[in-house]
Amino acid sequence: MDEIRGDEIRGKAEGTATVPLSVLDLVTVGQGRTASQALRTSVDIARLAERRGFHRYWVAEHHSMPGVASSSPAVILAHLAAHTERIRLGSGGVMLPNHAPLVIAEQFGTLEAMAPGRIDLGLGRAPGTDGATAAALRRSDRLNEGADDFPQQLAELTRFLDDDFPDGHPYARIHAVPGPVQATAEGGVQSPARPPLWLLGSSGFSARLAGVLGLPFAFAQHFSAQNTIPALDLYRESFRPSAVLDAPYALIGVAALAADDEREARRQVLSGALSMVRLRTGRPGLVPTPEEAEAYAFSPMEREFVDGWLTNIVHGTADEVRTGLDDLAKRTGADELMITANAHGGEARLRSYELIADAYGLPTA
Questions:
Q1: φ and ψ of 226, to 5 deg
Q2: CB neighbourhood size of 154 (10 A)
Q3: Tell me, what's the pLDDT at 1?
Q4: Average pLDDT for residues 312-326, to the nearest whole number?
Q5: pLDDT band at 6 (very low <50, low <70, confident <90, very high)
Q6: Whose CA is closest to 268, among 279, 252, 257, 277?
Q7: Please, which residues have CB within 8 angstroms of residue 182's CB and are 6 or more apart in sequence?
Q8: Could you tell me the pTM of the whole model?
Q9: Neighbours of 56 (CB within 10 A)
């Protein structure tokens, strides 16, 4: 295995935060906004996150969702790498069954060459979309095979990243480039490092697998809060020390939005909740405005869903959000919190991260 050090995985808490704080970006597109504007907002947030001492910035793979413009994480990460200097950048995550492992190894080898020592490769086994779109992505309607083969796909990807297929393997003469093979070519000079692998999940499957393999684990608490503690417990119980980590390291994705007052925070998260109602009922669209969300007549079933959804979003003033995040970190024992702020407009998202940074006394330059 090429060199991966634990300090490339473990973050450092800044200011008064008890754990490192990071950012998960879904590149949301609101009504009246364009994907170009959403991507410019991502650059603005990444720069803010770097300036204020957030540890890493990840983007997630989603497909066929008008309100989410993050269908190509590697492309977005290349763009963000060109506009930042220090912050770690990564996928939260790339959905491995949607792609050939060699393609992912090539893409993230290229990113590592662009931003050496700053790239994380987070992997998930869900499709990141509906079944029909997943079939179009995978050119197959046998979707369960992709998920069931995840450990084998992961092993293949790891070997491409490390360039260490054994002699006699059908892929022994195939190399992911940029990658370690360039160091072995005549006159070759290549960094021995490669992006650390993370496993992502919202259930126990990836938690157990990450533990058995000694990999860091990221749990999607922001949409599966009821499974957070069981999954983290399973990860820690299953963990075996590896060349990557000598002890478990788990982050959780947290939906959180801070505003200058409680009412404004409620308005902003309600638009995201309405967007989720539409997505869950087969009507995906752009993220509605807060005004539309406030005026929307929720059915009793929709209201029940929204009330439950909002209980899992830490929102309010900066102090209230800080208290909520601290409580969550203490309750789960998470080693890192990755905050996603979903709202209609980029201004509200930028303001939220700035307020959270201020609440924790994060660096200002």
A1: -70, -20
A2: 21
A3: 44
A4: 97
A5: low
A6: 257
A7: 188, 189, 190
A8: 0.94
A9: 24
pLDDT of residue 85: 97
Mean pLDDT over 158-179 rounds to: 95
Computed over every residue of the chain, the mean pLDDT equals: 92
CA dihedral 360, 38, 117, 15 (to 10 degrees): 0
Instruction: Please compute Rg for the chain using Cα positions.
Output: 20
Q: Which helix (H) or strand (E) holds 137?
A: helix 131-138
**Total number of residues shown for the chain:** 365
Q: And the tokens for 246?
A: 């000598």
**What's the token pair of residue 59?**
């983007």
- For residue 260, CA distances in Å to 137, 310, 364 come to 42, 18, 19
Q: Is the pLDDT of residue 5 over 90?
A: no
Q: Is 354 exposed, middle or buried (0-12, 13-18, 19+ CB in 10 A)?
A: middle
Q: What is the pLDDT of residue 189?
A: 72
- The span from the CA of 279 to the CA of 67, in Å, is 10
- Omega cis (within 30) before 178: yes
Alpha-carbon distance 20 to 14, whole Å? Answer: 7
pLDDT digits (tens, 9 = 90+) for 91-149: 998 999 999 999 999 999 999 999 999 999 999 987 656 677 777 776 566 655 555 78
How far is it, in rounded angstroms, from Cα 194 to Cα 224? 30
Q: What are phi and psi of 187, to 5 degrees?
A: 75, 10
Measured N-to-C along each axis, helices 228-238 and 204-213 cross at an angle, to the nearest 10 degrees, of 20
Q: How far apart are CA 232 and CA 227, in angstroms?
A: 9
76: nearest Cα among 97, 96, 90, 56? 90
DSSP per residue over 42-84, as a string?
A: HHHHHHHHHHHT--EEEE----S-TTB--S-HHHHHHHHHHH-
DSSP strands (E only) in the chain: 21-25, 56-59, 88-95, 119-124, 197-201, 217-219, 250-258, 314-316, 336-340
